[in-house]
Amino acid sequence: MEKTKKIAELFKKDSILFISGFLAFISCFFVKPDSGYIGYINFRVLAILFSLMLVVSAYMRIGTFDYFTNKLLGRIHSEKYISLFLVILSFFMSMLLTNDVTLVTLVPFALNVLKAFKDRRRTMYTLILMTVSANLGSMLTPIGNPQNLYLYTQYHISLVDFIKLMLPYSSVSLILLVLSVILLNKTDKTVDSAVTEEVSAPKLLPLLVYTALFVLCLLTVSNIISFVIMLGIVAVVVLIFDRKAFINIDYGLLFTFLFFFVLIGNLGRIGVVHDTLSQVIEKNVTLTAVLASQFISNVPAAMLLSAFTEKGPSLLVGTNLGGLGTLIASMASLITYKFYNKEKKEGEHYLLSFTVVNIVFLIILLILYCGLSI
Question: From the CB of residue 255, how many other CB atoms can be counted at a distance below 10 Å?
């Protein structure tokens, strides 16, 4: 009974990992394992994803983001401007640190800071808009979220083309986010200081070393340095400076990618399945991706649908916009929900408000997509 409970908890914690593993296993019965399996795996994506997570983990362990956020918030005394700052910070941080890392870093900090104002409603909406902001800000760069990195590599999209494609959506999103914060904070409260405790500055040497490693990762994303060289340097240097940084990596995400590579590879070799799904998806890749994301989240949707279409840019737009909508449309959204529910115990109210806000943003951005597609 106890083992069953533990398995159920593990499944609930990372259901996508278990489902993708099960589907990959089943697909092996239709396409027997052979030498072609090794060709399924995109080692470049896995190496870059692993290295980025490792460097960010090392950054977090020396308190980098906590320190700079603390310093900036210490200068703001208005609830409206603190909310605005947190939402904008989530938007831009997610471009470099991914949406999930941004929320893991900022949400606990935001909850602590907003306590000073004793305003439950505004705290909730600030967290919702921070989540939307992280999901939308992350769509502008290839390293902003896992599906971007995968699609950027899979379809060999240039960095300039990637940014040009997503810039209209990011720009409109930022305007909408700022307007939303202003509308939800028509009245304002002030305090002497919302920051309750000082955070020590990160040590200079590790900070400089990790920054150099982060730049190395960016150069690899830009195809300037080989991913093999990057992986070796990052792994060895972090091992020397802080081996415990390896513990905080999301290995579940890496295995999820691995399982999907196997599943996608096998589906591509089953002629009937490939041809049928390709015909359905090609009718409108973007809207199919948006819809699929609502049920299986946008990372699996990107990987799964990529096996049946050559329209990488359309899939990129669809899976990024598809991060809006349901709570599971972007798995990063669950991070905020878990933190808020643990702190406030008002999950149902949060879910309703979250869904309404997300749907409004999704409708506006889909209208923009339709306008740009004409």
Answer: 16
Cα–Cα dist 362/367, whole Å: 9
- DSSP state string for 320-365: HHTTSSSTTSSTTHHHHHHHHHHHH--HHHHHHHHHHHHHHHHHHH
Q: Please say if the pLDDT value at position 191 is more than 60.
A: no
Q: How far does CA 372 lie from the centroid of its chain?
A: 25
Q: What is the pLDDT of residue 4?
A: 66
CA distances, 104 to each of 90, 223, 273, 351 (Å): 11, 29, 38, 19
Kindly report, residue by residue over 116-142, the tens digit of the pLDDT.
Answer: 777 788 889 999 999 999 999 999 999
DSSP one-letter code for 201: P
HSE at residue 201, side-chain half, CA atoms within 13 A, is: 4
Rounded to the nearest 5°, which phi and psi values hold at 83?
-60, -45
Task: Find the helix packing angle between 312-321 and 146-154, rounded to 10°.
Answer: 170
Q: Name the pTM for this structure.
A: 0.84
CA distance 233 to 280: 44
> What six digits make up the tokens of 89?
């910070």
Angle in degrees, 0-180, between the axes of helices 43-61 and 99-114, rounded to the nearest 10: 20
Structure tokens at 351: 């879910």
What is the distance between the alpha carbons of residues 318 and 139, in angstroms, rounded to a whole number?
11
Q: Residue 164, SS3?
A: helix
Q: How far apart are CA 110 and CA 311, in angstroms?
A: 39
